[in-house]
Amino acid sequence: GQIFRLEDYKPSAYLIPGIALDFALDADETLVTARLRVERAENAPDNAPLELDGDALTLEALRINGADAPVSSYEATPDKLTIRKLPEEREFELTIVTRVLPSSNTTLMGLYVSSGVFCTQCEAEGFRRITYFLDRPDILSVYTVRMEADRKAAPLLLSNGNPVESGALENGRHFAVWHDPFPKPSYLFALVAGDLGVVTDSFTTASGREVSLGIYVEHGKEERAAYAMDALKRSMRWDEERFGREYDLDVFNIVAVSDFNMGAMENKGLNVFNDKYVLADAETATDVDFANIEAIIAHEYFHNWTGNRITCRDWFQLCLKEGLTVFRDHEFSADERSRAVKRIGEVRALRAHQFPEDQGPLAHPVRPRRYREINNFYTATVYEKGSEVVRMLRTILGEEAFRAGMDLYFERHDGQAVTIEDFLKAFEDASGRDLTQFALWYHQAGTPNVALSSRYDAEAKTLTVEIEQSVPPTPSESRKRLMHIPLAFGLVGPEGEDLAYESAEGAVVENGVIHLRKRRHTIVFKGVNARPVFSVNRGFSAPVTLCSEGRTADRLFLARHDSDPFSRWQALTTLFTDTLIAASKAVRGGKEPAFADDLVQLGLDLAADATLEEAFRALVLTLPSEADVAREIGHDIDPDAIHTARRALLETIARAGRETFGDLYEGLHDNAPFSPDARSAGRRALRNTLLEYLVLGEGTPQAARRQFDDADNMTERAGALTILAQYFHDTEDGRAALAAFEERYRDTPLVLDKWLQIQAMIPSEGAVSLVRSLMEHPHFSLANPNRVRALIGTFSMANQTAFHSADGEGYRLVADTVLALDGQNPQVAARLATAFRSWRSLDKGRREHARALLADMAGRENLSRDLADILERTLA
Ligand code: HT7
Ligand code: ZN
Questions:
Q1: Cα(509)–Cα(498) distance, rounded to whole angstroms?
Q2: Is the ipTM of this structure higher than 0.90?
Q3: Averaged over 115-129, what is the pLDDT?
Q4: What superfamily in CATH does domain 4-195 come from?
Q5: So where are the chain's domains?
Q6: Locate the Peptidase M1 membrane alanine aminopeptidase domain: which residues (predicted)?
Q7: Threshold 0.95, pTM exceeds
Q8: By Cβ atoms counted within 10 A, which residue in 57, 63, 371, 386 is the most buried?
């Protein structure tokens, strides 16, 4: 297949400043008439052919300046329209009529039908499934969209921008016209037509502009959109206050659809959402769902400035909008909720999703230099590591200079399609700093390792810290350059206070941050009056792997006393991880795992410490996952041994904490009506975490059964069901709870997804056959990405022992599903296949099974470009 390379970027020879689209909507066959105002670019040759992108298109008619184009003047295939004979003038009009088939479009890209609603998804390259176009983000056009449809089936007709006109037509049809005055790339085009319910509200911007807000959902689900509306208004205010960014159209609409390849899409003025990230109430959504909705509503809204007003020059620059917008949504959630708890969640997610990417065959820089299929680059590296890079930029520049850089970026590039270089230049110009070395974070793949040791000289009152960086090789990048790594730190004194020092020599140290720029630094802190414990990478200031000298006593101390809550959590997590690695080794060697009393006691003390937030205490009691431990072991992994070791630690803590946990659990109960706020969510999180220990300590399901029966909200009901399913799935209690849940939510698909998810995680011998049987359940469908992700996605990511089952049957289940799905929805199939990305780090038997299946899949005929690309890179 063709490989696209960053260095091959060329500005287009033609521009399309305006487009008028006309849709005659019909589910079986829709006619699209596109009138393009085309302009030959300044220095393009007169005779340059015009090559327009298409995908699965049928051309019905082509007119140039209103006259039918002679057949000899162009060539049309489903994926390209080449026009060789064009008018002499620099400006002309092209009319293109295409025929598309919405109801048989199973890819969920371009124009498709979801539960009877016409909708579109154009990012990255879906617009070319609607009409032939220069489908690249640096072609910015003003859109006018006219739609007509059957009035009964589609009373609602929406597109980008502001509504202009609407009216009745003959034969029970009607029309509407929308105009978007902001020039935009084709990937931001959207249309929705159908019969939906709506929640409306309004927002007055800082400068007094009145904006009508609408959230469209299936009839009868309007009440479940109230939280999303609230999150939207809070996001709009926050972007004004924190970044000085106002909304710019008269309307802002959100539509929830049930078949969607990703989370949501930021189309200008018309966001389209996976309904999972809109619909929520106490009965159907967990606190995690509420938090996700808040974050994704904010994320898509924030794209209006970072992505839409300023967009990407080409798809290599994807992180320009995604990394920056994730950073913005992280900051929003941190301001709305608990900053420390939010940060710990972000770091856990980064390690769970991005670190394995960076450490495996699919590693790529935050700004990749090549791709075969851009859909495969909507990755944790582009999004999450991209956000970490922006965070480091802020750490390096400081809040004020960072904001000045953002302001300059908005001012300089509003209305343009730009690059990462343009972005960084705005910060260099605003701050006067040189970011050349820092820019490597965008260009170089791999998670840097930072090794660290320290010694205190009591007589000289000096603390000497040795730090060394190295970046491991990644595919096609064997030699790495030295990075600029900002490490926030503190010298923690005997009482837990941060000790002062007189000077620091050997590296640039400013405002509590060490700027590591060379391979090795020896930093001498002078005038340190007592032996400190060195606390480093506070707040996870840099996305690195830290290898420090492993003094257990120091970690125990930091977990109890560090002034940075992230570092407290990190110290404890490192201790738990190390002990689980040792215990897994013991299990593999046929020995009993053993755990230090002081570590167990530390966990109990922190969990019971009423001065700490409940959400933080819940995190303290959440052990590293089996996948976390596997990743830290890194090679020759035996998931069964890790599972046994982790279960043993859970039981040890459960036994030690039996009484404390019971009292804590009871004390956290409150009779107040459900509220999704962060504080209440934290209490529920801690209760659910304690419940697992209670059940394990008692060895009976009673406590979980009670919570399941008494719960008045989904967080507690699903929490209890998860525990019953994990530990009692083959008992009457487990079976009865699963059946009751299924019955209660038989008509609520998003909740039945939780039922699938909970069962997909059960680590039993029968897991593979259970999942195969759930694929036959009437609720399951390969055509719906939420169903596939809930069952097969969860199985492959969160059921380590079953997915990696030693007989290879877990791999076979996922491979079968990937192949079955590929013909219908290549994007989702390819994403599912990334579950195999860490196959080389497994033990020999599992490695062999995985390799054989990957090779078998890669050898099939007619694979999609999406899947072929993932398989080829995974095997390389
Ligand atoms: N920018 C959006 C990306 C997206 C997408 C990409 C490929 C295929 C389907 C898609 N749906 C949405 C989402 C975002 O980052 O906001
Ligand atoms: Zn985004």
A1: 16
A2: yes
A3: 98
A4: tricorn interacting facor f3 domain (2.60.40.1730)
A5: 4-195, 311-443, 449-542, 627-673+684-875
A6: 227-438
A7: yes
A8: 386
